[in-house]
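Okay, is this right?
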Amino acid sequence: MLIKTSDLTPGLLGKWAFNLALPLAVYFGMPRSESLTSPMIAFLAVTLWAVIAWALETLNDVAVGIILPILYVLFCGVTKKVVFAPWLSEVPIIVIGGFTLGKIIQVTGLGKRIALTCVKLTGGSFSGALAGITLGAVIVAPLVPSIMGKAAIFCAVAISLCDALDFKPKSREATAVVLGTCIAVGSTKLAYLTGAGDLVMGMGLADKVMGTHTTWLEYAKFNFPPAMLYTAMSLGIVLLVLRSSVNKHTLCEVVRQKHAELGCVTDDQKRALILLCLTLLLLSTDKLHGLSAGTVLVFITALSFLPGISLMDGKRMASINFAPLFFIMGCMAIGSTGGFLKVTHWLAGLVLPLFSDTGACLASVCSYAVGVVLNFLLTPLAATSTLSAPITELGVQMGLDPRILYFSFQYGLDNLIFPYEYALYLYFFSSGYINFKEMILVMGLRILLAGAFVAFVAMPYWRMLG
């Protein structure tokens, strides 16, 4: 037959029916108003369709990412200039450069050597391996302001660890390693003002409202202790939910054996290590030379092709799977389109008045919740630029230390359910090593516990210092 009927199982047809019915109900059921226009409702419906498609796997992730910008153009009345604006950002070249760097680390065996050495030094246990990677993220976080630059480095190490220990893609162990690494990179950034570009921008907006200037050390005083506890809690959730069935003694023996099999460091590994150190150096000194993270990674990519270095060639380049790039950029169209249509202004008008008359604890939790909700529609950078000033202003009006609401908001932006909500998680998820359903379970529990953490641990600490 012309149509492959074997694909059309009752289960899949049921998923497609739900995938189409709910967005259509949103589009035709939501009331139009001056603040909620038809293009905005169409945006919500199309975005909901994409989220359900990813959740139920009714369509390939990359296919959804490719078609999503076109659907926004067709149904939301936006131009191609708006939906394809993310292609002019740093993200595409960071992904290309990061994937290439990851390939170099993988094919030379450097990533495997680093990963196995970290596991061996932390006792050879599964939890020790994650703790070792997390410690690395804590050290690198303030040195590399680009969150995607850190993602490119640590994702390659996490995948190398999975390969070294024979953890199959999307297995429970592989999910724990790669998702745990991703969470470590994301959560440790909250400890430092230079942890990510959106933190610098957001704190600048908050300082403008308060009429203050927050130094790097002052920001660390407020955020380093709670961020470390928050990172430890997040790691604990991963280990609790995704318990490994691998016996500790068996794993230790495997690690020792595989580490012994590595032999001496090869010349290729030495050159790759120098290239990796150069990448870290350039990323951590961007204020001195003015080169962006994307520029650095593309420069490193070109450098790897040079005679005498020869870590990359046409054959290796052709073996890199760049398909996830289209998934990532399609997802980023959600943020660019939502911002253009002023969906955030509508959402802010709904949410902010709800906690204007609450106490400090409840206001902090509400500010956290606003960050979590905004993740569904905007990137953390767009959300930070849109609501940092209004939330800080609300804190001033309530007579609170405005930084409490701003910091709580940033913790909310660090918590999400779906990988499309943040380029960092998109990058790690696109590796193909994370099981989507297990990720939702971990992230859902983390959202609940992080809210309690902000209310009963972080907020009292901030008030004590303030």
Observations:
- Residues 62 and 323 are 7 Å apart (CA to CA).
- The radius of gyration is 23 Å.
